[in-house]
Known about the structure:
The complex is a heterotetramer. By secondary structure, chain B is an all-alpha fold. Chain B has helices at residues 21-28, 30-51, 67-73, 76-108, 114-122, 129-140, 146-152, 169-194, 198-207, 211-222, 224-240, 243-248, 260-270, 274-304. Chain B has one domain (29-304): MetI-like fold (Orthogonal Bundle), CATH 1.10.3720.10. The longest helix of chain B has 33 residues, at 76-108. Chain D is α+β, with helices and mostly antiparallel strands. Chain D contains eight helices and 19 strands. Chain D has helices at 42-50, 92-102, 107-120, 136-148, 166-183, 194-200, 218-223, 228-233, and strands at 4-13, 16-26, 31-35, 57-62, 65-66, 77-80, 154-158, 186-191, 203-208, 211-216, 240-249, 252-256, 261-265, 278-283, 288-304, 309-315, 318-324, 335-341, 346-348. The chains are: A mainly alpha, B mainly alpha, C alpha/beta, D alpha+beta. Chains in contact: A-B, A-C, A-D, B-C, B-D.
Amino acid sequence: MQYNRLALYGLLGIAALMVLSPVFIMVSTSLKSMDEIRNGSIFTLPADPGFAAWGKAWFGDCAKTLGDKCGGLSSSFLTSVKIVIPALALSVGLGAITGYALAVWKMKGANLMFAALLVGMFIPPQVTLYPLIIMIRELGIFGSIGGLILVHVIWGIAFTTMMFRNFFKTVPQDLLKAARIDGAGFWRLFWHVMLPLSLPILGVAMILQFTYIWNDFLLGLTFGGRSGQPMTVALNNLVGSQFGEKEYNVDMAATMLTALPTLAVYLLSGRLFVRGIAAGAVKG
Amino acid sequence: MAEPAQGGLKPSQGGRRRWRPQWTARMALIPAMTITIVCFYGFIIWTFVISLTRSRLLPVYKFTGFDQYFRLFANERWWTAMQNLAIHGVLFIGGCMLFGYLLAILIDRGIKAEGLFRTVFMLPLSMSFIVTGVIWQWVMNPGLGLQEAVRALGWASFEFNWIVRPDRSIYTLAIAGIWQQVGLCMALFLAGLRNIDPNIWKATRVDGIPVWRVYLHVITPMLRTVFFTVFILMSAIVMKAFDLVVALTGGGPGFSSDLPARFVVDHILNRQELGLGAAGAFVLLCTVIAVISPYIHFELRKERGGRGH
Amino acid sequence: MKKFSKVAVLAAFMSTGVSAGALHAQTAEVLHWWTSGSEQAALAEVRKAFEAKGGAWVDTPIAGGGNARAAAVNRMLGGDPASVFQFSIGQQLRELADQGLLANVDKIASEEHWDEKLPPLIVKAAKYDGEYIAAPINIHGENWMFFNKAGLEKAGVDVPKSWSEFMTAAKKLEDAGIIPIGLGGQPWQERIMFNSVLLGVGGRDFYAKLYSTLDDDLLASDTMGKVFETFAALKPFVDESSPGRNWNEATNMVIKGDAAFQFMGDWAKGEIIAAGVEPGSTVGCAFAPAIDTAYIMTVDAFAFSAMDGEEEATPAQAKMAQVMLEPDVQIAFNKKKGSIPARLDVPADSFDSCAQMAIKTLQDPKTHLVSTGLFGVPSSVSGAIDDSISNFWNSADMSPQEGQEQFRQAIANAK
Amino acid sequence: MNGVELCNVTKAYAGLTVMENINLEIADGDFLVLLGPSGCGKSTLLNMIAGLEPATGGAIHINGRDVTDLEPDERDIAMVFQSYALYPTMSVRKNIGFGLKMRGMPKDEIEQKVAEVGDLLQIGPLLDRKPSQLSGGQQQRVAIGRALVREPSVFLFDEPLSNLDAKLRADMRIELKRLHERLGRTIVYVTHDQIEAMTLATRVVVLDRGAVQQADTPENVYRRPANRFVASFVGAPTMNFIDGKLMQSGDDIVFDSGAGALPLVDVPVGARDLIGRSLTLGARPEHLLFDPAGIASRVLLAEPTGPDQYVRLAVAGSELTARIGPEQPFKSGTDARILIDGARMSLFEPQNGQAITLG
């Protein structure tokens, strides 16, 4: 038994090490100087750790830029927040309502519609960029944060609807009947009974959608216009230059900085995440 | 009871009186329905229409029949990409399932510091595919990464150079992809394991069945739905795989690790081949529908059969 | 297709109506992919000059040429174009012009006599329907060969003048424990090396004829066969970590002496300078071995969106075009960028030795060559060329004959 | 009229008629139990009264009002579910008050009503707990409280006691009966448990395969089952059935099963008209009498239950169950003599199972 335990922890430890080592590389690289990176191995610890690269990634390097922006991530952090909050609320909210309507209010064709909607989960957004541009243009919101938010809602709704529909399908019918008899209509049943019930799955949907939206690059680049460029575009401007000289420590620091909000969400919500999934996503 | 277990709230017949909640429910579906029809299917149709034209940089509506499809099917890179999609799909989904399930089992064995391990395994989920690609490009680079590090430790013949080998590069996509998504799969499996009736464990303990057999023959079949959910979520990721290839291998060496989504985007945005790209996109979308329709069929049939309590 | 542009124009008008009115008449939004330090510093010179003339500059950097080009096109499509945008001149830009999405800067170009001051090949590429649709700001050379002098000395080799000399030198370098070629294994880098071989083996006329005609006979010719044989012979001189490597990592290998040669454009000088090395000192520059002297030019250029459907450049756009080609700006910009001026009439003496060599070479119009895309080849073809070269380079078991045949077919299929 | 009235109510799913022309009148203040096996349609019927499922045809009246097309909340009903269906995210207080809140009742009034119901059901101290912190019995009380607080004219109960253990079930039964007597409201109660039906109902409706088999008082349903189905469904252990003929044997009438003649005592006069006809005889276990004058039978098994014992007998080619007090234990394999209480027997047509009323 003792050996079994030892093997168990051994295996878990190895797995954890494998999962963590790339993250370790990012952090340690971001703390090194460029000379050390040019001459050393990526696995070594920084000889003289410093946060210069982090500062440069966050504030930019004003000496080297054109002036009105210093090219750091700080300028677009707020833009990202401005995009992610409404996009998250709308895509999750609409998914919750749609999933609820499809699961609870049996209507003719509800299953067909759900099936049709699911396809959206599998379409690579990049592949249908042009028609989307044309549509958003015709709506008159191209190049605005509003347009970008709509795009995120479009590409998020299939996933969120699926999460919520599958969860609401597991809610006992009696509960719905009781609420109907108590006089709750469509919205009040949703608001007072179903939404509070769905908190765990709401958490999971929010976390995953947050990750998708926060990490999006191409949609932000295309639809955000001049004012709506999210942090990932700024990140790309820092790290994605093809013909300029590379500063890997800044690249890594910038990457870490961009990932920090999502990282924090996962660190803080690990337990909630599993519980949320247990509550809905895997019940059948 | 005579009513099907899948009762739901049925609409009343007729409509003499006040506004009915069922009508509100229909109204509430309008946004989602609009998105589905206009964006998902409208875009697919648009893509098909464009694939019949000679559009290059911008959409033009000069039709050329199925020329673009002939060009597409004559294109070696397209076939490589499609073949890679199949390979990557099998490896990535299979790998996520296998490793996700194993990690979940290990964590479920009543260990200390469960929360720590769980968090660690879910950490990569917070990274974007771009970031994942960038990191793993480093790690797998033979001159910089793992190979060099192991050789520096004294194992001079150690080889891990898949990312630079055309015949192996596609596997590196799966490695990085699994690294990123294994946490989600683990969480799903863990949740499934937690939902299993503890009496099952008591029963198998009484029967003296070895633990591994219990997992293999008892628990795994019980987690069918979880496997299914994992399959669906991961196959959605495979179908959409784009960022990861761009960041990890750039489709290379050559185009040995290209995937259809990248092929399409490359041709539409960089190569003035909108028509050809659209043809590729349409084939890809058809593949998507072909792959997921059994799922949808299964899902809806399962519900028609009822899940009564 | 005119119908489409009207819609686009209308949409552009609607969505930018407010902001355009509010902005200064001399405002130009500049969308570009120059985000690295040296690139930004170079562009800042243009900005300074533009602002000194009363212009207002709105900066929209988007890293990565592909990303930036896509964003520029998408914003035009979406009806919210950037008034000035960096773009590659060539077929893609012509198509935008064809759709009526571009403004021309012909007026300022004729006032400033661009026709006489720019290399004729570039004049041709920057024009659509006889009018300038882009302002070429610089010339980069693609057939450079950078080398580590110490490494060459250690192996006892001179800078090779022909490809056979190169093979001999490479073997010696290998024996001395130095990687002969530091290559970034990405399709465009492999193509740059291929073009150097093509030029070196086939000569400048063959090169020009091949890419301007894409003639099937030339593609199937013995000369082409020899090009592929030579290119294939380079395979063993590259280290195994090459695939996927960024060009600047390869440059660093040369700087550090791990690798001896790199075939790369002159933007590599930026990386060399960043490492604290003067180009031409410990890291030397030469043209890639060739039977005759030529310079494969590639051009950074800016194009101008048709604002409110106007095909005539706005005052701000015209001013931008003018500023970009002013001799002082050309010098200041190109020194920082590592390229040479697009105008051949500006004094060369303040440039580094490599750039001076390039400027001197270009005085002879016979040496003028351009990169694949600038011959007016559609990007579908240049893309297929990249695919095909890269596939050949990375397929160990593909013979040069097979490579040549695949190259020929890829072009035929993409034409 | 007050109470509930169903006129020709029909239910079909996807064209398949599962219930046809149900007619029921439930008088104001009645405690009506819908009794039947799983799948008989009793829950469907209840759901139709509640408005949770639409009737395919026919009309439903509550207190004289046609409610066929009304939403559940417009029908002046309340419902208690087998699974309690408490809102898991709300406290007991909120659960009970939810229906009132939905109807826009002022907060302090809700508070007061909830408190009253809490006192009535003795759940006052639990009001601030969440349902998950309550025992099954407590949850059931809350569910009842949620229905009570609304003071509807009709209460609907859908197998409310099925999830409780035996003791609690018995207690709750008594409480429900008391509640009904105290409030005097109409109750429609669905169950498959005949004990609940017998103890609670003022009227029982036995349903099978979507049709009403019998609607009557509990006594009559037990004593005078309308057909063989009702006879067999009501009563435990179940009624004994024997196919055969009534025959004259001397002065007495016996029932001849073909393998033997069972003696009957106190046969009603009308039975003589049926002599010679093929019949099914139904005799409840307590109506098999041990009597030396009876027919010989063999004891197969005796099951003492405490107050009674059930004796399984092989007699005249059949196996019958008799019920007798515990005083005299029976042993398997011994002999016993039995006869049938003819005054309380039931007779059925063998073809359709309909009861034959003796004149």
